[in-house]
Write a structure and sequence with these properties.
The complex is a heterodimer of chains A (494) and B (269).
Chain A: H1 2-5, H2 28-40, H3 44-56, H4 58-74, H5 80-104, H6 112-126, H7 140-159, H8 167-187, H9 190-193, E1 199-200, E2 205-207, E3 210-212, H10 215-237, H11 240-250, H12 252-257, H13 262-288, E4 290-291, H14 298-311, H15 316-332, H16 337-355, H17 359-383, H18 396-402, H19 412-432, H20 435-457, H21 461-479
Antiparallel strand pairs in A: 1-4, 2-3
Chain B: E1 9-18, E2 21-31, E3 36-40, H1 47-54, E4 62-67, E5 70-71, H2 77-83, E6 85-87, H3 100-106, H4 116-120, H5 124-142, H6 162-174, E7 180-184, H7 192-209, E8 212-216, H8 220-226, E9 229-234, E10 237-242, H9 244-248, H10 251-258, H11 262-268
Parallel strand pairs in B: 3-8, 3-9, 6-7, 7-8
Antiparallel strand pairs in B: 1-2, 1-4, 4-5, 9-10
Classes of the chains: A mainly alpha (494), B alpha/beta (269).
Chain lengths: 494, 269
């Protein structure tokens, strides 16, 4: 091996007269490591920023993020945006908790959202008129810790199968647990749990005569809770417990042979993850002042996982960032046709700029696409006025820019559905082709993409946002499989 | 620990069956204090199975495993590791996505006790254990000199060369503070120079870390160079035991490796 052949650095070789290198000499190991590190960074100035952030260290970065988060409402975040922020912070808290089980300990837990629901229902029962004649209305200083501990205990219980099950089996068993929770809240003792109508009239968070009631207050509370949770988990992650979780993820058999009690360590991961979910549930219930079974169903689970994967499983900061990004896109931008239009065309442009080299080819593709659009629009309108009677479904600037470019017929729905199928076919063909043919096919693909967006995708945000999150994850998988802030991992077949 | 003269590890009439397959039959084996015992035998002889039974991965179907005077048969792997038996694996089983230093420190888990709250609050016990774990890690990594020197500590284990991965696995095993070290083919996949280094290393491990060693090895240079005693297995049965020359020339061992002498076969019909 080449690193064995190199003389070790140090004073004993000074007599050779060779100039002494400042750093250690580069052997095979070092070269591989540096190469891997180089791939960790984005190109050009983005990478420079990334490196600067890395030099700053973990804690200053967390502090900076906390200050930025707290400043947003002061800078004018309000109304609908504030609600999106609150939802995003709740999901971020959940993602950070799920990261313990999935990212650190490497167990695929698909029932995680049930712990969120358990925490929310627990808080709702302790803080409403549901139990007893007048209800319990426990002070939040007591009810939140009680619910967290109870959720942690439930996590231990649900984690028990993880001692025997792993991989796919554990995933499916926990998924059934999650579904069982939804069915349970829907059907069992409707007098207390309210069935599909849930529990309404839940107290806001209150203690020592202080009420947390405005959305702004919940936003600040959630930023603080998220930052504190991240700090605690970071401290845990760099301790013997965190190392044991990762060792069990990497190789349970070797971990056991190295004195680590694998079963106990797995259960701890489940308990800690559930406790964080329980905490998120209490704040969610108090902020919504109601809980419903559908709040804790599979769609939320998918969003949490999307965030965790996008941000990079295994990284605390990545989990939080990924969840915030996914929720802001999913719940914020993609609900408004204008914002979602900017996002859609912006992402396409970004992808083209990043992937199409040299710039002449990029300019050519854009020019030809523009020309094709105007020509197609002119031909279509010459044949029949109804073919272009629809007009773009986007609003604002985009609509004005595209009015004479994209064909939108009077009945956009049917044409759009056909366009969607065509778009999928074109995308598949695009992936299969190479070189010049791919560039040529890119032009009609871009046009059909815009056509589909303006006819069916933009007017149907509830479907489109699912597709967009999927598309973003596909792009991520190819560009940066370790996620936004994750570190590259190798999979070793044991 | 064990009284003077008493073996560190003793297997008595140890048997293991998977269904109808007898992987080990009535195997007797001892490893004395600071003794180096080599296990040899053709592929499938049951050498790694012995390690797997001793470290608790398999529960024996008969017989007993005694370590430092107490029976450990059927106990959990992590308990056995805490008692002082550490091992390496034939197919490397490092924590590939953890750093070199973390790989070693992770193996101190069983000898530390800080609870999660203590760790989060960085209370005195957590801080002391963390410091001691780091010192121990630096100590066991320094055993390999420049090979696993400081600048490699923060690199992921997957970035190490094959030979260094093997070294790291031994360092990780040492971090469990063993009195008995089980090495499963430490020289597999190494070039002649590295193989020679492994032979010296095994002797140094015994002398400097004061451990008893049981080593499985196919490379006869290593076996000849380091063993106090050699035990040969075939089909789960001990076929020879003694010093290297005696075992290497033992007819049963020659037959196990080479097959029976064709002339002898012809004579026996």
């Amino acid at each position: 091996m080449s690193d064995e052949a190199l003389p070790p650095p140090g004073p004993e070789h000074a007599d050779l007269g060779a100039p002494q290198l400042a750093g250690p000499q580069v052997g095979a190991d070092e070269w591989v490591a540096r190469q891997a590190q180089r791939h960790e960074h984005l190109p050009s100035w983005l990478g420079a920023g990334q490196r600067a952030a890395e030099r700053a260290g973990w804690w200053p970065r967390l502090a900076l993020a906390a200050v930025a988060g707290l400043l947003l409402p002061v800078l004018g975040l309000g109304g609908f945006q504030l609600q999106v922020g609150i939802d995003a912070l709740v999901i971020a808290l959940l993602a950070v908790g799920l990261n313990i089980v999935v990212g650190s300990a490497g167990m695929l837990d698909l029932g995680y959202v049930a712990f969120f629901g358990f925490g929310a229902y627990g808080f709702a029962l302790l803080s409403s008129a549901k139990i007893g004649t007048n209800g319990i209305h426990l002070s939040s200083v007591l009810s939140i810790p009680v619910v967290m501990i109870a959720t942690g205990a439930l996590g231990l219980l649900v984690g028990l199968p993880s001692r025997r099950l792993s991989g796919d089996y554990l995933a499916i068993v926990t998924l059934f647990f999650g579904e069982a929770f939804v069915e349970f809240t829907n059907n069992v003792s409707p007098g207390v749990l309210g069935g599909p109508n849930g529990i309404v009239g839940v107290d806001t968070i209150h203690a020592f005569g202080v009420q947390v009631s405005s959305n702004k207050a919940y936003y600040f509370l959630l930023v603080i809770v998220l930052v504190v949770t991240m700090a605690v988990l970071r401290l845990l992650d760099t301790s013997r417990t965190g190392r044991a979780w990762r060792a069990v993820r990497e190789d349970p058999l070797a971990a056991a042979a190295m004195t680590i009690p694998v079963d106990r360590v797995k259960l701890m991961a489940f308990a800690f993850g559930a406790t964080v979910a329980g905490l998120a549930g209490t704040i969610f219930a108090a902020q919504q002042i109601s809980v419903f079974p559908t709040d804790f169903d599979t769609p939320i689970l998918i969003i949490i996982y999307a965030g965790l994967i996008l941000g990079g499983a295994g990284s605390i900061a990545g989990a939080a960032t990924g969840a915030l990004v996914v929720m802001v896109i999913y719940d914020g931008l993609l609900r408004s046709p204008t914002d979602s239009g900017y996002l859609f065309y912006g992402l396409i442009l970004l992808a083209l700029i990043a992937k199409l080299r040299p710039w002449r080819r990029l300019a050519l593709v854009l020019a030809v696409t523009a020309a094709l659009g105007f020509a197609a629009h002119a031909i279509a309108s010459a044949i029949a006025a109804s073919w272009v009677a629809g007009g773009p479904q986007s609003t604002g600037l985009i609509a004005d820019a595209l009015r004479d470019w994209v064909i939108v017929p009077a009945n956009p729905q049917t044409a759009g559905n056909v366009g969607f199928v065509l778009l999928v076919c074109l995308l598949i063909a695009l992936v299969q082709l190479k070189g010049g043919w791919r560039t040529i096919l890119l032009v009609p693909t871009l046009y059909v993409a815009s056509f589909t967006w303006e006819t069916v995708l933009s007017p149907n945000p509830s479907v489109t946002r699912q597709l967009m999150i999927g598309a973003i994850l596909i792009v991520m998988m190819n560009a940066r499989p370790q996620g936004l802030l994750g570190t590259r991992r190798v999979e070793v077949a044991q | 620990m064990s009284a003077p003269g008493q073996p560190v590890l003793s297997l008595s009439r140890l048997s293991l069956a998977f269904g109808g397959l007898r992987a080990l039959s009535e195997l007797d084996l001892t490893v004395g204090d600071r003794e180096i015992v080599s296990l040899i035998g053709p592929n499938g002889a049951g050498k790694s199975t012995v390690f797997n039974v001793v470290t608790g991965i398999y529960e024996p179907s008969g017989g007993d495993v005694r370590f430092a005077g107490q029976s450990i048969a059927g106990r959990a792997p992590h308990v056995i590791a805490q008692l002082g038996i550490a091992r390496t694996f034939q197919s490397l089983r490092l924590f590939m996505n953890m750093s070199v230093l973390e790989n070693v420190i992770a193996a101190t888990y069983g000898h530390t006790g800080a609870t999660p709250p203590e760790s989060v609050l960085r209370l005195p016990r957590a801080r002391r254990e963390e410091r001691e774990a780091r010192e121990l890690a630096a100590d066991v990594l320094s055993f390999f000199g420049q090979r696993l020197a400081g600048y490699r500590w923060d690199q992921p284990a997957y970035s190490l060369s094959y030979a260094n991965r093997r070294r790291l696995e031994i360092a990780r095993a040492l971090a469990t503070r063993p009195t008995l070290l089980l090495l499963d083919e430490p020289a597999a996949g190494m070039n002649p120079a590295e193989t020679h280094e492994v032979t010296e290393l095994i002797g140094r491990l015994r002398d400097e870390r004061k451990v008893a060693i049981c080593v499985i090895e196919h490379d006869m240079h290593v076996v000849a160079g380091c063993s106090d005693r050699v035990v040969a297995l075939d089909h789960g049965v001990k076929i020879a035991e003694g010093d290297f020359d005696a075992v290497a020339n033992h007819p049963a061992v020659v037959e196990a490796y080479m097959g029976r002498d064709p002339e002898a076969l012809a004579e026996s019909g």
